[in-house]
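Please, structure for the following, as tokens.
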Amino acid sequence: MKISEMLRTQHFCESNATKLPLFASSLSNCYNGSTSCTVASSRVLDMGFKLSKQASGSNQQWDRIRHRIMNVFGRRAHERVLEEEAPQVSETGPSWKIFPGQAVPLGVSEVDTGINFAIFSQHATSVTLCLSLPDREKTGGPDGGMVELALDPQMNKTGDIWHICIKDLPRSNVQYGYRFDGPRDWNQGHRFDSSIVLIDPYAKLVEGRRYFGDANYKFSKFLGTYDFDSLPFDWGDSYKLPNIPEKDLVIYEMNVRAFTADESSGLEPDIRGSYLGVIDMIPHLLELGVNAIELLPVFEFDEMEFQRRPNPRDHMINTWGYSTINFFAPMSRYASAGGGPLKASKEFKEMVKALHGAGIEVILDVVYNHTNEADDANPYTTSFRGIDNKVYYMLDPNNKGQLLNFSGCGNTLNCNHPVVMELILDSLRHWVVEYHVDGFRFDLASVLCRGTDGSPLNAPPIIRAIAKDAILSRCKVISEPWDCGGLYQVGKFPNWDRWAEWNGKYRDDIRRFIKGDKGMKGTLATRVAGSADLYNVNKRKPYHSINFVIAHDGFTLYDLVSYNFKHNDANGEGGNDGSNDNLSWNCGFEGETDDDTIKAIRSRQMKNFHLVLMISQGTPMMLMGDEYAHTRYGNNNSYGHDTDINHFQWGLLETRKGNHFRFFKEVIKFRRAHPVFSHETFLNKNDVTWHEDNWDNYDSTFLAFTLHDSNGEDIYLAFNAHDYSVKAYVPPPPVKRKWFRVVDTNLKSPNDFVTDGVPTTGSTYKVAPFSSILLQAKLT
């Protein structure tokens, strides 16, 4: 019997059930000499011994498995994993006792014999562990006073994992990295350079500069660190996860730093732009009515990366964070008062705990499609590239091993390579288990649907693994279903009835209709009804459509109604960055104006966009700042501006709380109070009546319909994108009910939204140009 067959027939306790298939196929592949085993042979070996030790000693099948393992890997490997060899004494550093170490877990771990370091590299020929001790300041910082320990491939390597264990090493405040060397054959995809100290991909904390955007330290080096001294974080006895059903979510996309970095936040300077700053502004989120925040990247990134060499963008600071250095470590410069990585970790948890206490879920925007290491022309090597470029990145074998670029950022992570796939899964689990996050939005997720050669896959292993993973089962998983290589998968993203999608077609179609494009009436109906043309497949639901009009990239809502063209000169790329097709309309004038007529149209249009978003079936998402009409002055790609272009302007919010903000928050609360907007299933003829008898009228930009409520509180809606008024037919209300006007975007505040409604009479309603109405049937 093959090892894989033995394992598949072996009965395990439930806790080991998820490990069995992985171990079975891996061990079988290793035994057969496969170089593409599911995990590195060393991890297979260690897992095998752990599982075998749990089995009964009298179990003959396990005895045969042990025997086969010994034959495959040899008794020396067995002894090495179990750390049965005698320790050595360091000759290059302090008088530590040094053990060969163990291959799992990857990263740094505390074991009985000390601090264990383990890192993967399939192609490296030499690895050196570099340690910077707590008193490194006395020796000139991370590059000075480093202790370097060369790993012996005969003693410190199992399969493709290099490992070492050090006794009496401090349990915290140690910085570490690695030097790697190996083949220098560029055409074969190798990029080894032993002069660079690299970050461990599995480092749970990363140390770099302490203050965000500090130009005095723009060339700071980044190293991993760890902490085994601190007590576990206290989540509290009364703590619980919000566990909000997907159909009930209202998502608020935001940036941690930009939310409170501006002086107008009123926070102390040490708190601005931090995780703690978010906590202080939770009352605003509650007043607005959102119940989930989607944070732009919070994994460690180097905001000063554009300034490391002369280039057209060397005046900018990366404030969005789509340039990951490490997939496990929280962004350390979001800690308060320059507190560093350990404080960042603690304060991130405090932020999550506070948000959960307020009933708000936390979704992370994660970037697994590329890293910060750029391209081959101007590489910024900090980790993966120097550890094993050929494994971690997609390469073009027909072009001398050059990096493939499906991300638009110079490199593409090799997501469906077994080792990279496991890295991604381990990272996601870490954020769920350690930080209690509620979900993930995957940037350029179509990259994760490509094979190791870059070709699209019908059933990508990493996408399936995320959908089926037990630890991730409670999480929302959201794809941005496209990439920069032309793989556009809106409505077709591999999903296993689990993945939701940013619905880019919703965004585009809603923009077209509201600005008055012809021929969009039927499409508007499809989108507000939940995009059944895209998602009514298998067991998918309306809430798998993440509906949005505005997101972080592109125009803000105010700019969408104020600019026909992008204005990106400040980015330094000669206007070549950012989309040229924004489906926007400036309402008659480009940019700022004092014309009251144009300003009134813009105000109505912003309300129209917000209303249609919040009454649509599916999951609505809005952008931070749109609740007070934030402007970026026409810049539709503001990733590099740590200024008021991106910073939330709390002073403007105060001046607009009585009108624009009031309308936005009331519409959100109205949605959440009425289940008719968040059906679990797609609408049928009993759920909606379309007041339209000429769907083929290309010139018509008016649509009216009634959503039927099981309790008789029907909702009538009409959207008029004509430049003239439309006398709309209003059907009779349900029995013993009367229509009350709740929304008319043509009216000034507070009449644009009246919570209790204003009674209406007659069978028609005059809907003003570029405006919309909402009527509610109520008992008289």
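The longest helix spans residues 60-81. The mean pLDDT is 90.
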